[in-house]
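User: Good morning. I'm curious how HAH would be positioned relative to this chain. Could you predict the structure with it bound?
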Amino acid sequence: MTIMGVRKEAKLKEVFAEDFLIGAAVNPKTIISQKELLAYHFNSITAENEMKFESLHPAEDTYTFELADQLVDFARSNDMSMRGHTLLWHNQTPDWVFEDKDGKATDRETLLERMKAHIDTVVGRYKNDIYAWDVVNEVIEDEGEVLLRKSKWLDIIGPDFIAKAFEYAHEADPKALLFYNDYNESHPLKRDKIVKLLKSLLDQGVPIHGVGLQAHWNLYDPSLDDIRSAIEKYASLGLKLHFTELDVSLFRFDDKRTDLIAPPEDLLEMQAERYGAMFKLMKEYQSDITSVTFWGAADDYTWLDDFPVRGRKNWPFLFDELHQPKAAFKRLVE
Ligand code: HAH
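Assistant: Good morning! Here's the predicted structure, ligand included:
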């Protein structure tokens, strides 16, 4: 660990050993800079970016596995489980996927062939290392009545692109657990649309085993009641639940403040309260929830440092910038 020597606090993975796996999103830098913290507290990892379409498959005949393989090796050498993220998404997918050689939109058959080739290759390669995949990420429209978000996958293939992705993933690794993953998963309007999609997939006999609740939350949203209802509705479908990308931002989503250079004590205390209540709730549903993954590990690195407000730092995790336990950590292990 840092300069101080040996860590003495309880290990998260042991505190929750009877409940669920405890995961962190990692990248090639953090498996070095956060190595000791990760090995001590976590028993699962997810690649933050390195297994996305644009990272693995930048051109039709080019696959780039080097960085993803480094993360897989890290999981293996530390005896960790690994989740795969993500096979099909509207973001971080290169243009070539959707275009013919003249740069015009390709046709349904070609796009399905490309999807299948990608999924076969990626899922096949990591068969022995990845036990669960986020097959489809974020296809539900956030607001209003429209069910599916507009995307090139939807435009070119039609709504059955979702079922096809699950079918191809299941063929590539029949043992892998296959997840649908989304954010704003606890907001009632979007939750009900996600449930509608999941039900229709299950009714069609599509091989889907779980739902990933991203859980990009903050000090104020979503309410514990909304989180509880979301858990109950998803679990009632008979699906396994993974919290896949948990973080607790100190700011409301539309808060634009940029004045903080360190996290104020009162906000850290609220964050501790919130983490305490969230994990208490998750433990109540430990028979449905099999994994809880943070979208990072400690406050020295988070995707929220620049999102959605450019240049603003955030402090969303259980460990501070020096990898030391925060008030929120202490609340969980009490
Ligand atoms: C997630 N989206 C993605 O699943 C993950 O791959 C990425 O690294 C970070 C967050 C959440 C999201 C977004 O991308 C845009 C708006 C709201 C939420």
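The CA atoms of residues 305 and 313 lie 4 Å apart. The chain has a mean pLDDT of 97.
Let me know if you'd like a different ligand tried.
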